[in-house]
Every structure is written in C-alpha cells, then in structure tokens.
Design goal:
Layout (H helix, E strand, L loop, with lengths): L6 H8 L3 H8 L7 H13 L6 H8 L4 E6 L5 H16 L3 E6 L4 H12 L5 E4 L3 H6 L3 H8 L4 E4 L9 E5 L1 H14 L5 E5 L5 H16 L9 E3 L6 H5 L11 E4 L2 H13 L9 E6 L2 H5 L5 E4 L2 H17 L9 E4 L2 E3 L12
Parallel strand pairs: 1-2, 1-3, 3-4, 4-5, 5-11, 6-7, 6-8, 8-9, 9-10
Antiparallel strand pairs: 10-12
Helix pairs in contact: 1-2, 2-3, 5-14, 9-10
Length: about 350
C-alpha cells in the first residue's frame, strides 16, 4: 500500500514550498512546466487527493484559532485561554473554544469540525480518555492535512508537533522537598493513573525529592485516584489505619483540597498534624480553609507561548518546518496548609 501523501510531503520531496506545490497542482503558469509535470506525476502516483478547504486556507487565512480543552471550569485552563486570547487579539485573530469533556470521541469530533476549513491552526490539551486509549490517529491525520497543531500541558510525545508544558517534574520536586525540609518524613503522593502524562511527570519529581533526601519510597503512601469513583472514599485509605502521613503532595488542587476535608473528618489538623501542598494555584487554592500552599504553573504564560509557536508555524512557508518545545518554569506559593518553619542559624 502506498503511503498517504500530503502537500507537506510533496513539498519536502522536491525541496520547494507548500504554496509552490499547491500552484503546481493547480497548473499555475507561475511554475515551470518541468517542475509542474514532476509534481503532478508524483501526486498522481501516490493518489494524492487535495482537500479544497485546506488548500484554500493556505492561500486565504480564516484568522481564527481553535482551542480544545478537557474542561472549562478548571482555573488553569481559563488562565491558558486568557493568555491565548489576549495575544490573538493583538495579532488580529479570533479564538474558537471547544470542550472535549475528557472524552476521546468528543475530542476527535472537535478536531474534525475545526479542521474542516474553520481555523488556521489548533491548540489542544489532550483528553484523559485519549491518553488512556493511546489512540492518536486524529492528530496524525490533522498534521498530514497541513493544519498546524500545538499541544500544551497534556501532550503526546509520539506526535510530531510543537509542545508547551509546565515544569511538572521540577514543580513536584519543589513541593515534596519543601515538605521534607519542614520536617515531614512520611510524605504521601496523591496522583492520577499512570497514563495521564502530567501525573506521571509529577510522580517522578516526588520520587526524585525523596531520593535526594535519602527517604525510603513507600508505595503505600502513593495513592492513584480514579476520577470515575468517589474521591473522598479513595482518600480515606491514607488515614483509615491510624498511621497517617505527616505531609501530602497532591498533583492538583482538587485532590489537595478534598484531602484536607477528609483529614478534618478524621480529626487531623492541617498543617499542625499533616502539611499539604497542591499543584495549579487556582481559586480553590486561594480560598480553601486553610489556604493551600501550591505549585504555580503559570497558565497565562503557557497560553501565550502556545499561540506564539502556532503563529510561527502558520506564518512559515517551510515544507519541513522544525517544531519547537517550550518549558514553562514553576514556583512554589506558600500559604497556610504548610507550617512556617523558622530556620535557626
């Protein structure tokens, strides 16, 4: 079976721009007869079928960017959208937001809709169900159609596109190390299933901090939450045997805030009995009682960087565009769920 061919692949084969290939396939007088014949013969051999809408987009931009996020109520994603929209307006672009609701099928449908002549490029954070299924054909097809794609936060390493991520591993190390420096020696991790990329990265940072401080890694203190089940009931496992952790690092602020609620039910005080740190720094972190010490991942900066990378690819005429990766640094925001230790000289 012959490989699926795209404008980008034809352009790379002949060392010309995508617009040159497009003109050659339209039999434009701007392209030499010899080059036109070669490109047309190559396209015919590989059964190239032009997408008229996609070709039109190459010549006449829609000035619209598509964004696909897993959930709209999450404070982090609203910050990302704010960052994208602010820069998009400055560049004369509109923004169209779609919601996957963590569903693989909804994500595929969103991609198909946006790719059908509506947008110049797409920015996406991958749905959990897509990560679980490990089925990324819709991303491959999108890229093969010549529509630029940038992934942020939850990304797929196997897909060749530009990506923007927070320093999840570094942020998790900061949080765990802070708990240990505060005197915690039984630090629990509340995390996601392994297939969720950000949870996996944050677990690695947690383990790295334990190792650096010469603490034993106790698998009994690592709790992987299934969001399809009752979260409070799952968190009980860390407290029910009467030997609680003295520190908890949760990979998102919802897990952290919920753990503090469960800890109160068991009669434990935060931070006197158990210190807690979350990840994200949204409104929950600020207004929960006590306020939550958290890792700030700077969603607005991530959104701005994602749009910059997308615009760079949209404006590029290179057939073999070199995709870029960006890492957004994280930092620790200290609040009242951890003790304010007074270090002595």
């Amino acid at each position: 079976m012959k490989q699926k061919i795209t404008l980008k692949k034809i352009a790379k084969e002949f060392g010309v721009s995508i617009s040159t290939v497009s003109k050659a396939l339209k039999d434009s007088h701007e392209i030499s007869l010899e080059l036109k014949q070669k490109i047309q013969a190559f396209a015919k051999y590989y059964h190239y079928k032009p997408n008229s809408l996609a070709l039109n987009l190459r010549n006449q931009k829609t000035k619209t960017i598509g964004i696909i996020i897993p959930e709209i109520v999450h404070h982090f994603f609203t910050k990302v959208i704010t960052g994208i929209e602010k820069l998009a307006i400055e560049k004369g672009y509109n923004v169209m937001i779609c919601l996957s609701n963590e569903s693989y099928e909804k994500e595929v449908l969103n991609i198909e809709t946006l790719a059908n002549g509506i947008v110049d490029g797409i920015i996406i954070s991958v749905a959990k169900e897509t990560e679980e299924k490990e089925n990324y054909e819709h991303f491959t097809e999108l890229i093969n159609s010549g529509i630029p794609l940038v992934m942020f936060d939850r990304v797929v390493d196997e897909i060749n596109c530009s990506k923007v991520i927070a320093d999840d591993k570094g942020g998790a190390f900061l949080a765990t190390d802070h708990l240990i420096k505060n005197g915690c020696n039984r630090v629990a991790l509340i995390t996601t299933p392994d297939y969720v990329t950000v949870g996996k990265e944050r677990r690695e940072g947690y383990i790295s901090a334990l190792t650096s401080n010469k603490l034993v890694i106790d698998e009994n203190l690592i709790l992987k939450i299934d969001d399809k089940q009752d979260i409070e009931e799952q968190l009980n496992r860390l407290l029910i045997d009467g030997n609680p952790p003295d520190g908890v690092f949760a990979v998102n602020e919802i897990y952290a805030a919920t753990f503090m609620k469960v800890a109160r039910k068991f009669g434990y005080n935060v931070p006197d009995d158990i210190e807690v740190i979350g990840f994200t720094d949204g409104l929950i972190s600020e207004f929960t009682i006590p306020s939550l010490t958290t890792v700030a991942q700077h969603g607005r900066s991530m959104g701005q960087k994602a749009l910059e990378l997308l615009m760079d690819e949209i404006d590029s005429q290179e057939a073999d565009y070199q995709h870029k990766n960006a890492l957004i640094k994280t930092d620790l925001k200290i609040r009242n769920s951890t003790k304010k230790v007074q270090f002595q000289n």
